[in-house]
Here is the input.
Amino acid sequence: MIGHLALCAAANLGASGSLLKMSTIDVLIIVVYFLLVIGIGVMLKKHTKTGEDFFMAGREMTAWVAGLSFVAANLGSLELMGWAAASYQYGILATHWYWIGAIPAMLFLAVVMMPFYYISKTHSVPGYLQLRYGEGARSVSAVSFGLMTVFMSGVNMYSMALVMKVVLGWDIHFSIWVSSLTVAVYVMLGGLLSAIFNEVLQFVLIWLGALLIPIVGLVEAGGWSGLVARIHQNFPGGDYTHLWRTMGSFSDNPMGINWIGIVFGLGAIISMGYWTTDFLVVQRVMTAKDLRSAKLAPIIGAAFKMCVPFIVILPGLLGLGVLPFKLVGEAEAIATGGHSYNEVLPLMLARYCGPGLLGLGITALIAGFMSGMAGNVSAFATVWTYDIYRPLAKRKSDAHYVKVGRWTTLLGVLVSIGTAYLVMQFQSIMDYVQALFSFFIAPLFGTVILGMLWKRATPAGGFWGLLAGTLSSIGMWAYIKFVDASFLAYMAFSPSAHGKMQDWMALKASAPAGTSIPTAPISDMAENMYRALWCWVICVAVTVVVSLLTKPKPDKELTGLVYGQTEIPSEGHFPFYKRSIFWAGVVAVIFVILNVIFW
Amino acid sequence: MAKQQLFSIWFAIGLLLDVYGFMILGTGIYGYFNPPENPVVLNELHAGIWWGVLLLAMGAFYTFRFRPKKS
Here is the structure.
């Protein structure tokens, strides 16, 4: 979901030659990075002998390591470049995806959901569904997650290679094979442990490589107030520095979305679904060494996530304030030979970073790509081995499953590479794969949260609710895409926008190929938000109705899985300032203050 | 069988920062005495020098604080 803009951005990058020229020292910095990540994999191989070691990093991670890995698995380089581009285009509104679109969900995971994941000792989210609802719900979520993870990994891989081609002039095949085989080697050797260790390393590098841009940029702009004044001067009439003021209606802001979509679609459903049930990120915090660490890890992740706009959104805003030329849409950039929004981060990197620092910045981008990909393949290997292969090949030795996990890692990378080449031939696939992935997030959250909080939810209810939510999401997407786009106005509680949508569709249909048309009155982004909201409602409604009509599981089978049937163990006797709930409160208060400051 | 002691990832990060700090500081000092033909914006801040020092200092801290201990 979050990478949608980024994927579009990367897909549309024009082949206008490389933006950056590297020196020998820059290349050396990148080479040192590759050697170290491989070295970490080699050193960790001897520590990953059992299934728990390989798939769950031995469940020995500290809160800091699990928390940083949790947030790093999401912080891909396309995320960095895509949202920097979005902040140039839409201003500070892009920050919603980092604040309301992440922080409440991460805190909810820590305080409410983590105890159940931890106590049940499950190895995956589909594994929790199997314990709670049985094989039906597990199979639906395991197969969909496995497929979508490798497809998404391939799409990201292709996008990244495209970025490297445009930014550095690198051969697209070289980028794909070198980066992905490096990830394959270190994850195959050290499993999740290696992935997590490297993600922490990559997280530090991303910060140190990207942090210089906002620091030097703010010096140039004359601080935050100077930056705001420059943006007003360069773009009179536009509001690029307020988070909520323009959220009253779809037409008040360039994103074409309103506060209902942001708060309920993004904040309450999509981000909750992603941060609490997407196994790619949840797997990281499941590796924590004890319950307190498991609860603290998402809180630490949330604290750092809240800071990410400083290295992602601020460079885009600085681009608005200090660049001596205006960035434009991709089509216009190709037609006029100018630069597009998507190039804002590399342009800012080139503006402030000389030899050495440039290498560090590019290493940050590569590290971002590799951390995202390692997250995908390690989660895929776990779900494939435990939730798809093991039910079919029971009673094998632990060593056998570790072996399957190692080969599945390689298989996942090779399928991802295959997907990358497929996307290279048929770029429209990218939109479909992205949409496919989004179909499963919102309903899965409905199924998991009902399973955890409502003991009356039955196996049949969970299965049919998940299936109905997923199918309704696909149905809504297909209807709007292929039958009637103006239906979106009703879906978004805005029947008054129906006429405007029809006018826009007529304009789009009559416009000659290649000409640019205004964006839709209600954007694709808003469609994602409202589709998520509706399919979650359908999933919950079907789960409730079917559950009330079918026989519930006995209470004793729900112990450790459901609120009210589970005694949550104490985190230990600690002073208040060492308790997870205290730090969750601190992060929540800072989150509110930041939203008020930038209101 | 007792499990082997894991090395600290913070120690590895410290080593990397030391290496990067050394390389970037060295490049920054070279650039100070041999100004480039096409300098970056605010080149006069010599960001490479103080960023290199920062990386070295962080690297030294992590390398020392999380160094492998004899069991």
